[in-house]
Write a structure and sequence with these properties.
heterotrimer, A mainly alpha (about 325), B alpha+beta (about 160), C mainly beta (about 110), B: about 160 residues, alpha+beta, Immunoglobulin-like, six-stranded mixed sheet, three-stranded antiparallel sheet, 2 helices, about 20% helix, about 35% strand, globular, C: about 110 residues, mainly beta, five-stranded mixed sheet, about 0% helix, elongated
Chain lengths: ~325, ~160, ~110
């Protein structure tokens, strides 16, 4: 992999963080905080935005940081740091009018950011490795479980009928929990309450197989998570998280995924972060994984304290991302790099 | 953001610079193939016969999205008749820990000498596909690929 | 038993060249990785894949750690007669799996 200056470098660029002096950082943090609390976030607004991120003084910080990084860093880290600095400048300088949500008709699935070979892998069910999980899920659907000795099929019949459109509606409000749950959690709720079986481990092969099988039944259908007075507070919590600068790098999700989705980060395309394909077969994992796994990857990359699988924060964020992707067709199970 | 957080940031930045990043797929002791070991592996197959360019088409994406799984096609022009067919296809690499990628044996029943699979590529490198014909001749094709990694890696397990 | 997905056309004309696509669930652990305490994770891969058609071997592949996880292998054969296509994967730690598909050739 090559850095911005063309030299070969093996280091993952974000791992080699920049030695930014603390004085500069503190100033930035104060500014960012003020920016985040002054304007209330718009409710269900399309195309509204502004004021959420990249206040003017951050631009100066970006340039200062870049100069500092380019001169004061040992050689092996330099290429990754100058790449990183370039991206940081781009992020802070490229949005003079505080770029906002992506207009609905400009939204693109992660599919469109992939190369033709990866797309071909997704398009052909007999070549998509996720199909192996779908087949496992189909077997699990029919398998009796728990002390009630019931299978999913015993209540839900043919998944191709009963599960059509279901994955497209999740995360969905669960009355007994008083909050939205995602599809994996719902599967486990069914297991515990209906089958009297132990819940499946989160991110385990069986749960991913069932999730892939159920999500597959919604392929092509528009994403349609319900936002009403019950789910709205959780949508807002997810939205706050998406737009909040956080962690060591002081990034907000929006800076990459709203503002810089046409650019590249470490040679990979920055997508718009629509979860239309989950669970996905990610080439990086050589495995199928959930949106929570992917969010945790991003959160690690942003150098933010991570959330455990099943955390409410991750479900709130998923709800926001599904709302943000409303109307886009489901592609599960997708292939992603 | 508290003073504690700020201090932790500074410490982590320093530690990360020392640690040099997350665990990768590559071996710690870096015993890797090199162009020389690739040549040695090729020699084992080809021996002293001439290795000619042609007849073989090796397809790999020039810019690989993720080195963990790269779609690869190899096709060899041949009528695949009893008198004129491809006996074997071998694929080699330059920078993975090991020089071999896959070796395939065929015969006239194949009808077409074509193979598709997915390979792992540890770094930007040259890949070579060699076809062995029934008359003992060897033909080859090679491709240079650039391999990038995912931008946001997970914590090590 | 690993999950497999095999794509063989159920029907073909005699003499037609058909594509066979196979996918098998397998981690293909390279043997070059180390865990978080630095211990080497031992190799565990599929080392060979053989396809026979009515008992005649039509395709054989030696796989190395450079083959990606959940190996996808696609190749061709001439449809000669109705019968059984047998696919066999073998590998480290005694891994062995055989699957069959039927084909009608007219």
């Amino acid at each position: 992999m090559t850095g911005a200056d063309g030299t070969a470098c093996d280091l993952f660029p974000l791992a080699a963080a920049m030695p930014v002096p603390m004085a500069r950082r503190k100033r930035t943090m104060t500014v960012a905080k003020a920016g985040a609390t002054t304007s209330p976030l718009p409710l269900a607004g399309e195309g509204q935005g502004g004021g959420k991120h990249a206040p003017p003084s951050v631009r100066k910080r970006g340039r200062e940081q870049a100069e500092f990084a380019a001169t004061a860093v040992p050689q092996p880290l330099a290429c990754s740091l100058t790449t990183f600095a370039a991206i940081l400048i781009a992020m802070t300088v490229s949005s003079p009018t505080f770029a906002a949500e992506i207009p609905l008709n400009e939204r693109k699935s992660g599919y469109e950011f992939m190369g033709p070979e990866s797309r071909a892998m997704q398009d052909d069910d007999s070549a998509n490795p996720a199909s192996l999980w779908v087949l496992d899920g189909e077997a699990l659907w029919k398998r009796k479980a728990g002390t009630a000795s019931k299978s999913c099929a015993d209540c839900h019949g043919e998944a191709s009928d009963s599960m059509k459109g279901v994955a497209a509606r999740y995360p969905a409000f669960n009355a007994s929990r008083g909050r939205p749950v995602n599809l994996d959690q719902q599967i486990n709720i069914c297991r515990a309450e209906r089958q009297q079986a132990t819940p499946l481990p989160l991110e385990g092969k069986e749960l991913l197989a069932l999730s892939a099988y159920v999500a597959r039944q919604s392929r092509g259908m528009p994403i349609n998570a319900t936002i009403d007075e019950r789910t709205r507070p959780f949508l807002e919590a997810g939205r706050t998280m998406f737009y909040r600068r956080q962690g060591q790098l002081n990034f907000a999700c929006a800076q990459c995924h709203d503002d810089n989705w046409k650019e590249k980060l470490a040679g990979s395309s920055i997508t718009q972060a629509h979860p239309s394909g989950y669970p996905i077969y990610r080439l990086e994992w050589q495995n199928v994984g959930s949106v929570q796994r992917r969010l945790r990857n991003c959160i690690t990359g942003m150098r933010v304290d991570n959330y455990p699988f099943g955390a409410n924060e991750l479900v709130d964020l998923e709800l926001f991302l599904m709302w943000r992707a409303r109307g886009m067709p489901m592609e599960a199970p997708a292939v992603r790099p | 953001m508290t003073a504690d957080d700020a201090n932790r940031r500074q410490f982590l930045i320093g530690a990360a610079s020392l640690a040099g990043g997350l665990i990768t797929v590559l071996p710690v002791t870096d015993a890797r193939a090199t162009p020389a070991t690739m040549q040695a592996a090729i020699k084992k197959v080809v021996g002293s016969a001439a290795l000619r360019k042609g007849k073989v088409t090796l397809r790999l994406p020039p810019l690989v999205e993720n080195g963990n799984s790269v779609a690869m096609d190899v096709a060899v022009e041949s009528p695949m008749t009893a008198d004129d067919y491809v006996r074997a296809i071998h694929v080699f690499n330059e920078k993975n820990p090991q020089s071999n990628v896959v070796s395939v044996r065929l015969g006239p029943p194949a009808g077409q000498a074509k193979l598709s699979t997915r390979v792992r590529l540890a770094d930007s490198q040259r890949i070579m596909a060699i076809a062995e014909m029934n008359d003992g001749s060897f033909w080859s094709d090679e491709v240079d690929v650039i391999v990038t990694i995912a931008a946001c890696l997970e914590d090590p397990v | 038993m690993a999950r497999t997905l095999i794509n063989v056309p159920p029907k073909a004309k005699k003499g037609e060249v058909i594509a066979i696509k196979t996918l098998i669930s397998h981690e293909m652990e390279t043997g070059y990785r180390h865990d978080n305490v630095g211990k080497a994770i031992p190799r565990d891969i599929i080392t060979q894949f053989v396809c026979t058609y009515n008992g005649l071997e039509i395709f054989r592949a030696d796989l190395f750690p450079a083959i990606a996880a959940n190996p996808f292998i696609s190749f061709f054969t001439v449809a000669t007669a109705s019968g059984t296509i047998e696919l066999k994967w073998t590998g480290d730690n005694g891994f062995s799996q055989t699957e069959t598909a039927n084909i009608t050739v007219e």
